[in-house]
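Justification of computing resources. Each target in the renewal requires a structure prediction run like the one illustrated here; the chain below, 487 residues long, is used simply to show the kind of job we budget for.
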Amino acid sequence: MRYLAFDLGAESGRAVVGTIENGRLALEEVYRFQNRPLLVQGNLHWDVYRLFEELKFGLKAATAGYGDIVSLAVDTWGVDFGLLTEDGILIGLPMMYRDPMTEGIPEEVNDIVSREDLYRMTGLQTMRFDTLFQLYALKKKHPGYLKEARSLLFMPDLLGYLFTGMGMADLSIASTSHFYNPSLHCWETGLLEKLGLPADILPRLVYPGTTVGPLLKEIAEECNASDMELICVGSHDTASAVASVPATNGRWAYISSGTWSLMGAELEKPLISDEGMKCDFTNEVGYGGSIRYLKNIVGLWLLQGIRRSLESRGVKMSYPEMVEAAEDAAPLRVLIDVDEPDFMNVGDMMDKVDNFCRKTEQPLPEGPGGYARCVLESLALRYREVMSLLTSLTGEDYDTLHIVGGGSKNTMLDSFTASACNIRVLAGPDEATAAGNILVQAINRGEIASLEEAREVIRNSFDLVEYLPQDTETWDKAYERYITLRG
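Resulting structure tokens:
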């Protein structure tokens, strides 16, 4: 059987066809496209109609090249959503999570519902762009959206709705919203009502691995995709990525490395504690009802920003070229607090790094390699800090850190992470999200029996690269300096 995964990130999207034969997974990327937000009347939006057209191009490429495909599934980033009218028409374009509309909104919400009560209900760390805060910001600044809305669909489900006409939300994407209760497995409708937000717009909840239904007739005919069904996999891309972690025992942690770094462990049930709230750890749902107990860290967005800054200065470099330049830069010369709020926003990243260096009385990075090395070393030290918190909160002594996703191809960051965290690192697969997406489809179809078997397929299919700690004393000293810079 052949399966089609649509994997959308903040920079790009792609269509990947997957097949399983003799216990091995083969992936073939058949289409790729850019994903850029639109700035319209002062707000950042996702051009969801263009994205849907790109997905249809991907579907056409897949059916033209491979013939019969039994199912498809869409995964995207979390929190963002579209609102539909009673007639199922999209109201405007979905807001992008990096839009400044939500600045200051968490504090306003906490004046009504305390941070402690929010955490006890949802188990989520506070991120200003969470769905809850976006909805509250819309109520204040664009109330017409909510007055007309009759349903809310998260980005992967909205794209799925355009394919099938059916709307729902799987638990993995719902659990990023800040109004889903992972302990009670339901929406926190009372929370929305207390904040004056409509609770009747929330979609039906389903488990990852649920069949949504067939494609609309006109879509199936246009794309030559008859008899194909849409599956709700782990529609949040991190859920799909974690499903493909090639782990063999319970003493492992992971980083899903891409634009964001999602670092955590897989638990059987939510871990909601005062200590977890203080450390801003989050409880999100994975395949099979597991919990992704993790922390969001600004990831390779920083390196992407440095690349854009260089391009604006007339210097074009690929990511491998930036890493190569970083190898020649002085080690551990400049460090930044990667979670400084300013680094999360759109803007000139090199200027932001320079401003942080001036504020902390450090020299400025030297050349493209200096900026790239600064970012990668600082990320590795932030991983060490979060790993220490994870160990303390879960009481588990982890012996292996799996790095999956596109960032696992960054050999310098992988090596730095092993040394900074003083832990064995296994890097790969880099196609983790698409692989997890397809393997959950295969479980749905009965070709694979379980998540454990799916992870065995991953181990059989991809070459993993091992990194062991090096020069740990130097990294220990750098970590002390890093903590001082974080204040």
